[in-house]
Amino acid sequence: MDRFSLLLCVEHRIYREGLQKALADRPEIRAVLACDGPAHMDRHALDGVDSVLVDVRANPSGDAAASVRTAFAAACGKPVVALGLDRDENALLASVEAGAAACVTVDQSIDDLDIIVQSVLKGDLVCPPRISRLLQEHLLQISYREREVHRLTKLSSREYQILSLLKDSLSNKLIARQLGLEVPTIKNHVHNIIVKLNVQSRTEAAAMLRGAGEALQ
């Protein structure tokens, strides 16, 4: 592939200068620019840059995904590679979800980084196989949750109100007393809820609302 340019977003000067020098010596890299971190990126710094490398360890809160999110928002569509991650599955997955096209862990080398960046510039998402599986599972969970939310939106306001009380484990009698309705009316609403949600029981209906709660807010 053609030679490419990188922007290093690294707060620590010694690390930044050492990495800049190591990368600049590689024949496939045209130029290595640098800034003090994702918060200092601007459009001028991105001119002619093919990919952004961000050091996630410099975040004061230790939130690697927050550093990636900041860099991704400022990168103007340039692929972002997260540097310095531990092999913690949750941190790696969070970084990919935040916008990282690839993650370089603390035990990987300059050669690994070079290969990863070249893969990213070909349009590939680069992460360990285990993280790829976790990401796929996560996307499937999101898809399933969206289907549940869609079914919940079919409920009337009264049915949703009753389902919320079912979620709190209230009986038909207690729900009727709280809403000022007759018990047979509550039973009819519960039956309609079960049919609309395509579930087998009131317990399953309540679990669906409990699981989809954050998505409905």
TrEMBL record:
UniProt-recorded Gene Ontology molecular function terms: DNA binding
Pfam families, per database record: GerE (PF00196)
Domain of life, per lineage: Bacteria
Gene Ontology BP annotations: phosphorelay signal transduction system; regulation of DNA-templated transcription
Residues annotated as domain HTH luxR-type: 148-213
PTM annotation (4-aspartylphosphate): residues: D55
Signal peptide extent: none
Location of the Response regulatory domain: 5-121
Keywords (A to Z) from UniProt: DNA-binding, Phosphoprotein
Protein name as catalogued: Response regulator transcription factor
InterPro entries: CheY-like_superfamily, Sig_transdc_resp-reg_C-effctor, Sig_transdc_resp-reg_receiver, Tscrpt_reg_LuxR_C, WalR-like
